[in-house]
Amino acid sequence: MTTDLGGGLSGAIGFTVKWPVLGRHERAAEWLGVWSDLGRVPRTLDAYARGLSEYLLMCEREQVDPVTANRSHVAMFVRELASRPHRRGANVVSIDSGAGLANATIQQRLVPVRLFYDFLMEEGVRESNPVGRGRYTPGRRGGGGSSRGLVPRMVKLPWIPNEEQWRDLLAVAAGEPIRNRLMLALAYDAALRREELCSLRTDDLDPAHRTVRVRAETTKTRRGRVVPYSAPTGVLLSAYLRHRATLSRARGPLFLSESRRNRAEPLTLWTWSKVVRRIAVAAGVPRFSTHTTRHLCLTDLARMGWELHTIASFAGHRHTDSTLTYIHLSGRDLADKLSRGMQHIHAWRIAALTGTSSAAVESAR
């Protein structure tokens, strides 16, 4: 089936050019057009278009109508994703696989497929969703219990650099232009996501109170917030604003490109990613990314004893469950906690065995 993408589907035209298979399936183009009209950001729409187009291509190869496809056809798509060679090399999915896309990538590809079938159900085209969702219903006797999703979700701890790696990164970053140093400092100080950082405007800053406003439209959760930054970062900011004035005195995007081709234009997400990648490779810490500073900041706040809800508010999370995936203590922190806890328990047991007080046992150590 084809469509001219007229009317409410005009927002999907750009994506059908990039992913032609969407234009061959009227319902798919219609679904993407709805999300476009609802104002979803281009990056989200692109991820939806890519995931659904890959599923539609599989349906075409297998001569299956995606509108009437069943769970077995979706399972074929999952199997293809799990065995597909990764363009950046072998990516371990299970202990003995050594190939296929990562679990998080497979989950990402399935989201638009599930949402597409949700749309077909709402339109009365289908009665059920072949992708389904993992959920839990309390009560065994009433037929409750766990319902697993199509693909078990693996939750990995976020990676953060150790102290030596961090010093190596800072040594390389010290030689960077003032703009890049300020961006790294703000990304860590305020736990900013890449898009939040690159979307900052001059009027988002309040130097008098050393705070920065993160606008709702630039955030992942559509929740605006005001976060502080440190005095050293404030010094870098003052120096950068003087430098920025040599590029443009106009209010607007805070971080500007200095390349000859795009001079004084807003800095793009991809340019910032390339800058961070270059720094990471030069420092010999290739796992460092634009999101690592956020991981490190939230973990440091947890180490300083901040409460979970306070960290969630600082990070802009809707739920503390999201915050928990960003916060993890190092093995050394856990070992220290275990040592202190076991020392107390050991002292108590010795006191009980010998009939002496715990304080006497501790003083005799």
TrEMBL record:
Residues 156-339 form the Tyr recombinase domain. It comes from the Bacteria. PROSITE patterns: CB, TYR_RECOMBINASE. SUPFAM superfamilies: DNA breaking-rejoining enzymes (SSF56349), lambda integrase-like, N-terminal domain (SSF47823). Pfam families: Phage_integrase. GO terms for biological process: DNA integration; DNA recombination. InterPro entries: CB (IPR044068), DNA_brk_join_enz (IPR011010), Integrase-like_cat_sf (IPR013762), Integrase_catalytic (IPR002104), Integrase_recombinase_N (IPR010998), Tyrosine_recombinase_XerCD (IPR050090). GO terms for molecular function: DNA binding. Residues 26-121 form the Core-binding (CB) domain. The keyword DNA-binding applies. Keywords: DNA recombination, DNA-binding. This is Site-specific integrase. It comes from Nocardia panacis.
